[in-house]
Amino acid sequence: MRANDEWPRYNFTKIGPDFGMSVQWYAYGVEMHGLRELAPCGDATAEIDPVFDAAITPNDPHFAATGSWKQKYADQWALHKIGFKPLEDKSSAWHLTTGTERPVVVAVIDTGIDLTHPDLHINNIWFNPKEIPGNGLDDDGNGFIDDLIGWNFLHNNNNPSDLVGHGTHIAGLIAARWNNGRGIAGINRGVRIMALKALNEVGKGWGSDIARAIVYAVDNGARIINISAEHTGHTKFLAKAFAYAQEKGVLVVVAAGNQGSDTTKIEPANQPGTLVVAATQPDDKRVGFSNWGQKVALAAPGIDVLSLRARGTDLVQTTALDPTKTKPREAIVGKDQNYYRVAGTSFSAPLVAGVASLMLAKNPGLTAAQLDRMLRMSADDIEAPGWDLLTGYGRLNARKALEADPDYYLYAELHRIAAARESGKAVIQVFGTVMGSQLGEYRLEVGQGDNPTSWRGAGRVTGGPIKDNLVGTLTAADFGGTGRWTIRLVTQDQKGLTRESRWAFTLN
């Protein structure tokens, strides 16, 4: 029995016996219905006909191309940067898995998805196996009628089509077709995208719709949720939805935001249990518009990110979301005009979500907490040494994430410092996080200037583990006078491996 690429028909046609076999075609997603209809009878058996692929380099032209819009780096530099190289290259993340072993469901809560895009295969769209298409009934009793591929929470219907392009671009980064001689390559060729529309034609949406979409995703089998939206403030009902996802073991990946400000003021980046992603540029520096703060876990490419263009859209012109002020139609790429390049943390987050889906395809037993830790611990350190407020633990590295130890972690994070008085004397209180699966010890050190060449032990520490609380206290005696100084927090595990975090400031 074969899954049919045509969409979305629930039927089959006998195409003739081959070597005593009869092949039946079913619409993708209803193969299990087919197996039940073709239940074994006598000596006959029924099984799904697997799809075989040649193990060759992705032949998608933009994956190998450079300069399609006169840039000096690869068209798909974002994928190259995080570890996706030609399949024959043993250092490529794809050499470990392409995601086809076990399909993983990733919910994209956004502006919808253009399901007609030629570089988005229907096999990579989530299909509700309990729903019979077009009968006007809620077959699975989940409260949504004919929710075949997801739901439109804006208009409360089963049509999550994309009139903006934001959601389609995100879906393409995760799931664009492989080896079809067209366009780009997505991260996970076996992924299933659940299309949940909660943002409108100008990229805005109600928090209540996003909350409903989160609950739907969790209840209908998503292992990962991507949310590339932002709002200034904090709402309790959204907090409940995020807590529900966390309770059910679903990893929620969110964009840090594009105001160049502290994530503590931006929702959902300020929600507990979210994996917050900042944006980087080709030289591994944080992009200036990318939000920062103690909630940032890691970073991923966020400018000139090439992906799918929804039909008839010019994303940055309709949503005013472009921090680089692109001219009309300037971001459209390719002779067929089916591709689009854009900047923003919105497009950094799905790179992380895509890699997380590969990790689950390779090891489906991983928990959301393990995925979170593995992604942090495997990131390539950029910007200031160790964890920093700008890029967290560093830039996403897909290969290292796939090879990371699920149970190992060692955190050293300096979140803030504050002046205080103890016993009538001025002190500096140091706040942060000290945690580890095999935590040995930690210490505070100080050095002169922004990039000290030498360090000395300083202050007293409170004893770990610590999560966003007082790490230690420094006095005037710990410094050699006024001027620029850097505080360094160093954690060490029981095997002697260390991590660090730094905080530079001016002492008056």
Sketch the major β-sheet.
7 strands, parallel
- Given helix and strand content, the structural type is alpha/beta
The side-by-side strand order for the widest beta sheet comes to 6-7-5-8-10-12-13
CATH architecture of the largest domain: 3-Layer(aba) Sandwich
- Provide the helix percentage: 10-25%
Overall description:
- With 508 residues, this protein is an alpha/beta fold.
- The protein has 3 domains: 52 residues, no CATH class; 335 residues, Rossmann fold (3-Layer(aba) Sandwich), CATH 3.40.50; 98 residues, Sandwich (Immunoglobulin-like).
- 17% of the residues lie in helices and 26% in strands.
- It is built from 10 helices and 24 strands.
- The protein has a 7-stranded parallel beta sheet, sandwiched between helices.
- α4 packs parallel to α8 and α5 runs parallel beside α6.
- The longest helix is centred in the C-terminal third of the chain and has 14 residues.
- The radius of gyration is 25 Å and the shape is globular.
- The termini are far apart.
- About 3% of the residues have low confidence.
Quick summary of this structure?
The chain has 508 residues and is of the alpha/beta class. It folds into three domains: 1-52, no CATH class; 69-403, 3-Layer(aba) Sandwich (Rossmann fold), CATH 3.40.50.200; 410-507, Sandwich (Immunoglobulin-like), CATH 2.60.40. The protein is 17% helix and 26% strand.
